[in-house]
Automatic annotation (TrEMBL), chains A, B:
EC numbers on record: 5.3.3.1
Enzyme class label: isomerase
Sequence ranges assigned to domain SnoaL-like in this UniProt record: 12-110
Keyword Isomerase: yes
GO MF annotations in UniProt: steroid Delta-isomerase activity
Record protein name field: Steroid delta-isomerase
Keywords: Isomerase
InterPro entries given in the database record: NTF2-like_dom_sf, SnoaL-like
Organism: Nocardioides marinisabuli
Amino acid sequence: MAASNERIREVVEAYVSLIAGGTAAEIVDLFAEGATVEDPVGSAVRTTREEIAAFYGTLEGLQQETRLIDCRIAAGEAAFLFEVRTITDGGTFTLAPIDVMTFDDEGRITTMRAFWSDTDMSVG
Amino acid sequence: MAASNERIREVVEAYVSLIAGGTAAEIVDLFAEGATVEDPVGSAVRTTREEIAAFYGTLEGLQQETRLIDCRIAAGEAAFLFEVRTITDGGTFTLAPIDVMTFDDEGRITTMRAFWSDTDMSVG
């Protein structure tokens, strides 16, 4: 049976929160074995836990704030708009991707695809 | 070569606009031959032009307003949040789905999947 909408919502909220304040290991724990990450859509798909951990590891040193703007869930899949603000000495970089995720029956992420491009990034 | 981001943006804007004010035939014209429509995600996938036309035909009699809220485009695919307000004697029904679309090289829609559920509908 597909994970409930409530369970998927919890995982999406945990994911967005961990992007700002979590470790790569905590983020990877949200993913199922064999999960894949395509961020952004069109880039090389990360297919191993090591690749996924390395990808999220690049966020660990950054000062980031995130918020979930809108989330739609249907039939064990989610699409959600969220904002990531990265605060640096050179300014604040803001990006609001739309991520699409599928989940296994326990609500672990099985695929993640992030829709955004360079032109969606703003600096303030 | 994949359709440009500008071309895809135009098609998304046309789609959202036609949901409010277009005919089923005008909407179907945005789709490639062999296109599929899954609305909402998890429902039966419409695979023929007749099925797709019948689906959008149900909107023709309604008084609707739409607006594109946010759109992200990457590698010939789009994910976008838009709002549909349906005005009836019984009130105004508002739904803001996130749609995910793929496109052929000319920017015709090849697949459409709409993320929303009944709980995302509000009545005012």
